[in-house]
Amino acid sequence: MSINQSGWRPEMTPERRSDNATFTGNRALMLEEPLIFEIGATDTTGVEVAEPMKVASKLGNLARSAPIGLPGLSEPETVRHYTRLSRQNYAIDLGLFPLGSCTMKHNPRLNEKMARLPGFADIHPLQPVDTVQGALGVINELAVWLIKLTGMHGVAMTPKAGAHGELCGILCIKAALEAKGEGHRKVILVPESAHGTNPATAAFAGYSVEDIPATAEGRVDLAALKARLGPDVAGVMITNPNTCGLFERDMKAISDAVHAAGGYVYCDGANFNAIVGRVRPGDLGVDAMHINLHKTFSTPHGGGGPGSGPVVLSEALSPYGPLPFTERHGDGHITLVEEETVGDRHPDSFGRMCAFHGQMGMFTRALTYILSHGADGLRQVAEDSVLNANYILRSLENTLNAPFADSGPCMHEAIFSDDGLPDGFSTIDIAKGLIDEGYHPMTMYFPLVVHGAMLVEPTETESKAALDQFIGALRSVAERAKAGDEALKSAPHFAPRRRLDETLAARKPVLVWKDPALAEAAE
Amino acid sequence: MRYLPLTQPDREAMLSVIGASSIDDLFVDVPAEARLDGPIRDLPMHASELAVERHMTALARKNLSAGEAPFFLGCGAYRHHVPASVDHLIQRGEFLTAYTPYQPEIAQGTLQMLFEFQTQVARLLGTDVANASMYDGSTACWEAIGMARRITKRAKAVLSGGLHPHYVSVAKTMAKYTGDSLDTSPPVLTADTDIDALIASIDDDTSCVVVQYPDILGRVADLQPLADACHAKKALLIAVVTEPVALGALKSPGEMDADIVVGEGQSIGVGLQFGGPYVGLMGCKDKYIRQMPGRFCGETVDAEGKRGFVLTLSTREQHIRREKATSNICTNSGLCALAFSIHMTLLGEAGLRALAATNHAQAVSAAERLAQVPGVELVNDSFFNEFTLKLSQEARPVVRALADKGILAGVSLGRLYPGEDALANGLVVAVTETTTQEDVETLASALQEALA
After folding, report:
1. Calpha distance B198→B193 (Å, rounded)
2. Where is the Glycine cleavage system P-protein N-terminal domain (chain B) (predicted)?
3. CB contact under 8 A, B348 and A40
4. Distances in Å between the alpha carbon of A419 and those of A59, A423, A453, A478?
5. Do A409 and A353 lie in a common domain?
6. Mean pLDDT of chain B
7. β A454-456/A414-416 pair status
8. Is the pLDDT of residue B106 over 90?
């Protein structure tokens, strides 16, 4: 069997195309890469392990006898496999990533370097606390920054992602209500302009969810909210700045009304980068808010995570936060409050959300980023992200329909819609056309309150030149759609793959690789 | 402010395009009383790369890292050697700085990796399918209990005493709000596992039995009889693996007919990192796919008929379903899944089996040596690379005293089970390929001294 330089076997090539076909299926630097199951072998390994000592097995008669079916590759083949795969990805290191509400910004490599210091990367979560004072110091220092930047009273550090943070905040609200004998409050109000995860979280914590409509200008309808408040309402979950890219002007009035009615205010802090250093949510009456460290404080998204979602809490909710947490004493020593040490000091904690201390590796990265920017730099972050978003909004409002262009300045993101495109053209065509221009598309079809939404968030780490080129590209694609350019409907044309059949994937799910020879024999 | 590329002339030019006279005009919607007029006081200003590096390095130095000490901690987080190429490859910007692969045409790298990861995990756990990772083992375990509730329409979960106490805590927290009732008990410090007791506690209200393999004391048990007993009552068996390297040496839970298998994948490719980020593994039988939380990558074809991959079955998910979502999962642990998958590819079956054999042999040898220390008794008959010692006195102060000498001796059961006096003398010791004979000797002498 002949094997080419990557270990790829020619007879396994995808069907050869007649036009511009190559023997390998590659096209110069655009490389096809088979699966490890097609090129690896179960007796191949890229590691060397010490020979085991001769001892009597203690596996309790459960030694594995069946093969596992895990192919291995040598180290050079492994490096090549994953390097080739990496080249099939768009990433912030390659260019502007205008995903609204997802906040893809430059990821400084100093963050990575610091997270890999052995003193952080090579310590165990259950080491005696005296041996991890530096790690607890990171948690504590980051906690202080988060509290001061948000004007809040406490922070729960352990939630592992934004949605996990939302759940943490809602559980704090629930615990606080139960402690007050108000456990009968079963309704959480969620404005239409909130993130889709918000109602999911509230429902998951056992609440019934009621929508509050948005006004024509894209903000919470304060009158509708006030009208719905009552003794059955536990609280409101609001996203501010909201998913229409707008600041909720009535935030303080909303908080006051919710508090007067006996409820609590949860704020989705996913878009905190637009206001950090300029507005403290605590000053607006927020009781709980999660902060997506990966968004605001630039920990890399990694193709889907990990995230990290600490939750800042008002004085009213702080006693109910989850275990474990840190306590800094007068002499600088930091102790850990967990099941072992909690005793009767924090009887109201609602419990534990995950096995250990949360996303320590993310804390290290976020603190590194925060210290690099400082209080002055973080304020500049908010200013530049808002400036960049408004520059995009005003530069394109005559090209694409901008539904909230008259609702005041946008915050971190600008929203457009497919209104005004000819029949048969929609947001997806604009998005896929942008791929051919070398961009990751903006967020599509979100928020739900805008038909055919296109949510563009440039972030603060783009230069004016980068914005100008992106504006030019988006304008060009939009003009092509308006002119009825049919080629747009089958875009992308130049990506490693053309439009993928998502319906087929959902109808006949193939979620693991099966040897085609064996699969055929089984049929 | 080296991360911000706009110059002052850029900002002025952009403001004029916008038609604003100053940046403050862009914040007019913020109520005046909530607008800060300058940087928040009593927080430091921006700092150079050198200065930040010094500060962080000083904090890192205050920790005793595993590499600096004879190190024996496990209980849900394990220290293994990670080949250099793993960390190199996950730091490639196209992986590190990519988003969730919602635009599949330009995310095939991440998607193909996730498809490979799902297949590797399913084969390792012995399940038909696996998802594209969860936050970690403890949250995956709780999500599995919720999944069993949806499948069986019953709400009583029976948790083994051998299940990691933090996993039990997470499940208890969540059960308070989801209405599950949990039948829990602490482990008993004997060589026997609690399989018989678990079988006896299954009834017609039981949604699932959750059992850890190997368990918190390191013991292993044949899960087949438990699976049979569950299935006889139409309940599900959920197996939890916190040390996946063990499955290179042990029968997989799927082979013993577990319905859902969850795990903590940290051992393979992901370092200790003081507890996170880690990578949750989750696999199940085919018939339960649509009740399974988390992301899935699926194979499909593109408009030219070429094989490609997409995220699929997302109609279950939190970011789409609003109040109808079935789990708290909104993303996966993509980069950690990548690290797991690369390390697993480097190992291959041959490497994983060799690694497991070495772990087991070194653990057996260490257990025998430590059991010779006066005042130390080995609890386990069976184990993989982690076992429990019963000391002649409370283990917690011993662990602390040894830490003062620079030895990280293991996890005291007193820390994990405060208030359970019967467990206070227990010390859980993990031994991996990174542990040397010299480390074991150092621990043995230090224990001898401490217990004398």
Report:
1. 10
2. 1-446
3. yes
4. 66, 10, 9, 11
5. no
6. 96
7. antiparallel
8. yes
In a domain, residue A519? The reply is no
pLDDT at B172 over 60: yes
Is there a domain that residue A101 lies in? no
Residue A424 lies in a domain: yes
Kindly report, residue by residue over B193-216, the tens digit of the pLDDT.
999 999 999 999 999 999 999 999
Query: Which of A322, A386, A461 has the CB atom closest to B26's CB atom?
Result: A386
Give yes or no: residues B275 and B397 share one domain.
no
> Crossing angle for the helix pair A360-396 and A464-482, nearest 10 degrees?
60
> Region B134-145: what's the mean pLDDT?
97
**A337 & A410 share domain:** no
Those residues of chain A that have pLDDT short of 50 are: 1-17
* pLDDT at residue B314 in the model: 80
Residue A322 lies in domain? 151-367
Residue A270: count of CB within 10 angstroms of its CB: 28
Residues B365 and B297 in one domain: no
User: Mind telling me how many Å the CA of A422 is from chain B's nearest CA?
Assistant: 23
Q: What is the ipTM of this complex?
A: 0.97
Is there a single domain that holds both residue B315 and residue B395?
A: no
CATH code of the domain containing A346: 3.40.640.10
Residues B268, B417 share a domain:
no
Report whether B262 contacts B142 (CB < 8 A).
no
Nearest CB to B31: which of A87, A249, A506? A249
- Residue B317's pLDDT is 64
Residues A344 and A398 in one domain: no
Please state the φ and ψ torsions of residue B109, each to the nearest 5 degrees: -60, -50
**Domain total in chain A:** 2
> Which structure tokens are listed for B173?
């927290």
Mean pLDDT of B263-288: 97
Q: Give the range of the structural domain holding residue B444, as residue numbers without chain letter.
A: 68-81+348-451
pTM: 0.96
